[in-house]
Specification:
about 300 residues, mainly alpha, Farnesyl Diphosphate Synthase, 14 helices, 2 strands, about 75% helix, about 0% strand, binds geranylgeranyl diphosphate, Geranylgeranyl pyrophosphate synthase, chloroplastic, metal-binding, Polyprenyl_synt_CS, Polyprenyl_synt, Isoprenoid_synthase_dom_sf
Amino acid sequence: EQVELKPAGAFDFGQYMGERAQLVNKAMDEAVPQKYPDTLYESMRYSLLAGGKRVRPALCLAACELVGGDAKAAMPSACAMEMVHTMSLIHDDLPAMDNDDFRRGHPTNHKVFGDDIAILSGDALLTYAFEHIARATQGVSAERVLRVIIELGKAVGAEGLVAGQVVDIKSENQEVGLDVLRYIHLHKTAALLEASVVCGAICGGADDVTIEKLRKYALNIGLAFQVVDDILDVTATTEQLGKTAAKDLAVNKTTYPKLLGLEKSKQIAEDLIAEAIQQLDGFDTDKTAPLVALAKYIGYRQN
Ligand code: GRG
C-alpha cells in the first residue's frame, strides 16, 4: 500500500515517515516470525505487516528522541503500539462489530482466515505486545519498563480503547451529545496515541513534567484526528456518493459537524492542533520537527 504523506516545511515528513515505517516493519517482522501453528502466525503477520501509516510507532520513537533518548530504547514499545492497534482493527472489522470486508487495501483478516482465527490472532497480538515490551526493551530501567506496561494497559483496557468501543457501539443510532462524542474519541483513538507518545518519552528518560506536556500534545492530536475524520466523512462522502447517500449514512452516527456544523468543527480541529504544538515550546526547535509535522499532518490531511 502506498503511504501518501505531504512534506511540512523544510522538514521532509514523507521521507521521515517512510524511513521510520521501514525500521518498524523490520523490527515487527523479526518480533513475530512465521512458526507453528502456521495459520495463527500467518494471520498475525497478515495484518501486522499489511501496510498502514505507522503513526503510533513514529510518535513513540519521535517522543523518545525528543527527550534525548536513543530511538532503539523505544523500538519494542513502538512495535507494541502497532500490535495493539492492528489487533483492535482486526476485532473492529469482525461481523459482530463493524463487519468490514476490506482494510488497508486488502481483504480483512476474518475474510481470509475465518472469524475464529481472526479473534485468536488478535488476542495473540494483544498479549504479545506486553510480553515484547517486557522481554525486548534494552537500556531502560525496570522501573520505567513497568511504567510503560501500566500506561499501555490503561490505554487499551476498560479505561481505554475497549471502553471507547463499548460506548461507540451503544451510541449507534442514538442522539448523543458532545460529552459522549468526546468520550468515544478520547478512548477509541486518543488513548493509544497518548500511550505511544508517553511510553516513548518514558523510554527516553523524560522527567514527569515533560511526560505530562507530551501527554497533552498527544491527547490534542488524538482528538483532532477524530474531528478531522468526522469532517472528511462529510466532505468525502458527499463528493463520492452524492448527497442522498451521505445523508443516509449520517443518520447512524453522531459527528462533530452534525452537532456543531462544518465551520465550527474545522475551527476546533485547528485549535486542537495549535494547542498540541504549543506543548512543544521550550524544546530544541531542531528536535521538535517530527512531532510538529505529525500534528500538522493529522490536522490537515485530506483523506
Ligand atoms: C483493544 C482489547 C482491544 C479490543 C478491541 C475493536 C476495539 C476493541 C476497538 C476499536 C478501536 C478502533 C477501530 C479505533 C479506531 C482507530 C483509528 C483511528 C484507526 C485508523 O488509524 P490510522 O489512520 O490507520 O492510523 P492505519 O491503517 O494507517 O494504521
